[in-house]
């Protein structure tokens, strides 16, 4: 039964992922998400029938357009598969509940932000601003959805809301300092994304999001420097690491904090 539900979650996620690819392709260029319908970027032929089925079509056509043979970026498959697995995990853990809707929303949001930053070096205001507004509206209801936002104290609406505001403040401070005093490293987009993640995770889970983002970003940066794939002054998009931290905190933050506290007390 659980396997069936997870499989359904995967299929649903893969279909949503295929729409996320459209967002990733079109939002940075300011193009409409609805028209024109999906087409090959090289020859302009519209995708029909089998070519519209996520994951399967990519594998079936071996990553090439069926009309002109142009290579389809492997990112298309990666985003579909990643969304599929994340949705499968969320559905298997929470079932089809309001919790699923909330976590599915943030999964999509952080995937789009990560991939657009990776490919274009941009964290778009037209994504972060509405997402910050939505997160502010959701913030007081977090515990009503059934999440234990603040595991160590009461979860009244006011406290949960304050935990979100506190999370946003705590995450924004290090980024503000970096942007103001070391402007080559990060941009204002990173600050806005940190505010968004703080609102979504709240205190104390925002600490997990920060730790994972800085650790993974630091590790990858040192690795790239060691392999001479990146120059010292060269900026590296930080959005993917912010996203990784946010999703880990949302999915496993409470477990990580519990284990951490058990180690020390
Ligand atoms: Zn083509």
Global shape: globular
Going by helix content, strand content and strand pairing, the class is: mainly alpha
Our measurement of the CA-to-CA distance between the termini, rounded to an integer number of angstroms, reads 39 Å
Secondary-structure element series: HHHHHHHHH
* Oligomeric nature of the chains: single chain
Average pLDDT taken over every residue: 90
Which ions, cofactors or small ligands are bound in this entry?
Answer: zinc ion
Rg on CA atoms, Å = 20 Å
How many helices does DSSP assign? 9
Q: Your description of this structure?
A:
This protein is mostly helical and 265 residues long. The chain folds into two domains: 1-95, no CATH class; 97-265, no CATH class. 66% of the residues lie in helices and 0% in strands. It has nine helices and no strands. The chain has helices at residues 2-26, 56-60, 74-94, 98-120, 125-138, 157-181, 188-201, 205-226, 239-264. Helix 6 (157-181) packs antiparallel against helix 7 and helix 8 packs across helix 9 (239-264). The two termini are 39 Å apart. The model has no long low-confidence stretch (mean pLDDT 90).
């Amino acid at each position: 039964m659980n396997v069936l539900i997870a499989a359904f979650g995967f299929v649903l996620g893969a279909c949503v992922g295929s729409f996320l690819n459209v967002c990733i392709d079109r939002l940075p260029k300011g193009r409409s998400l609805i028209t024109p319908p999906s087409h090959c970027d090289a020859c302009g032929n519209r995708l029909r029938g089998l070519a519209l089925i996520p994951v399967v079509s990519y594998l079936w056509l071996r990553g090439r357009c069926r009309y002109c043979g142009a290579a389809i970026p492997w990112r298309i498959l990666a985003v579909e598969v990643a969304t599929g697995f994340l949705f499968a995990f969320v559905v298997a853990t929470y079932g089809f509940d309001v919790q699923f809707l909330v976590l599915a929303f943030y999964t999509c949001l952080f995937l789009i932000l990560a991939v657009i930053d990776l490919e274009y070096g941009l964290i778009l205001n037209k994504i972060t601003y509405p997402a910050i507004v939505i997160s502010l509206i959701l913030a007081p209801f977090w515990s009503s959805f059934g999440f234990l936002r603040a595991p160590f104290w009461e979860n009244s609406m006011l406290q949960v809301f304050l935990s979100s505001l506190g999370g946003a403040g705590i995450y924004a401070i290090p980024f503000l300092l970096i942007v103001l005093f070391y402007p080559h490293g990060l941009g204002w987009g990173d600050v806005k994304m940190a505010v968004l993640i703080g609102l979504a995770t709240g205190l104390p889970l925002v600490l997990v999001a920060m730790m994972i983002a800085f650790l993974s970003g630091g590790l990858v940066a040192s690795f790239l420097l060691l392999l001479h794939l990146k120059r010292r002054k060269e900026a590296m998009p930080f959005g993917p690491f912010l996203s990784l931290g946010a999703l880990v905190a949302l999915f496993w933050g409470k477990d990580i904090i519990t284990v951490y506290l058990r180690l020390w007390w």
